[in-house]
Write a structure and sequence with these properties.
Largest sheet: 5 strands, parallel
Oligomer: single chain
Number of helices: 10
CATH superfamily of the largest domain: Aspartate/ornithine carbamoyltransferase
Strand content: 5-15%
Distance between the termini: 24 Å
CATH class of the largest domain: Alpha Beta
Order of helices and strands: HEHEHEHEHEHEEHEHHEH
Number of strands: 9
Strand order of the largest sheet: 7-6-5-8-9
CATH topology of the largest domain: Rossmann fold
CATH architecture of the largest domain: 3-Layer(aba) Sandwich
Structural class: alpha/beta
Length: 310
Amino acid sequence: MNKHLLGLEETSEEEIRQILATAFSFKEVLSRPIPKVPTLRGKTIVNLFFEPSTRTRISFELAEKRLSADTITFSSSGSSVSKGETLRDTARNIEAMKIDMVVLRHNSAGAAHFLARCVDSIIINAGDGQHEHPTQALLDMMTLQERAGDLRGLKVAIIGDILHSRVARSNIHGLKKLGARVAICGPKTLIPREAEQWDIPVFHRLDDAIQWADVLNILRIQLERQKTALFPSLREYASQFGVTRQRLLRAKKDVIIMHPGPINRGIELENDLADSEFSIILDQVTNGVAVRMAVLYLKSGGRLEAEQRS
């Protein structure tokens, strides 16, 4: 097993399966009256978040507390970063305080890899620019395993802003390693050039993607990352690529609906579908804590044994 979790592109199928198996074990812990184990007692974890985050940050913090680790959460606003301190110096100064692990969210692709070369602590990538978001993809795969069982042959269409999505990239790498079939769908302006290297189907009509897929993983339109207008308007995008109940009825099939959040209701996903019988979105949120517990546990040297269930 790799020391760090920097992305799923370099993570083996065996390691992915080990993380998911451990996550299912920890999910049982979370259902107890006291959902806490002493597994990481004495370990210190720093959450370094250089981008705004709610779900991912809270999920990691909960996972760390459930494992009894000592935690510190650092945000760039109001810190020495705002005074010009570099990522390397920030991390090395924090590491000098004798920490064991760093969970990093950064707006630059490759930041987690860079940090892993600068410090001795274990690095967990919580999202780096437009590169990868491995724990989100892992929780997506765990949630799909709960609903659909074995992922081999399952057809997953990732819909929307592929260009700016680290979630899409991690899901493509991870799902393919577990034998799922993956496709992407979106306007041509939101499909990156590198998609040609992924060797997967590319749809530019949402109805075609729905007809092909068993699962729709719908992405948020990331307007904050768009430097130029990549489609005429949000209304136009919603009419062409918004997933609605009417589109599903027209396709005459049931599909599983996923979304990494936050949802732009009425744009990429019709309001009632987010809470419908098709949706496993809240299951994704629940499983996020179990997956992150598993990652923290395994990367700290744990093994899939009875220890985490004691």
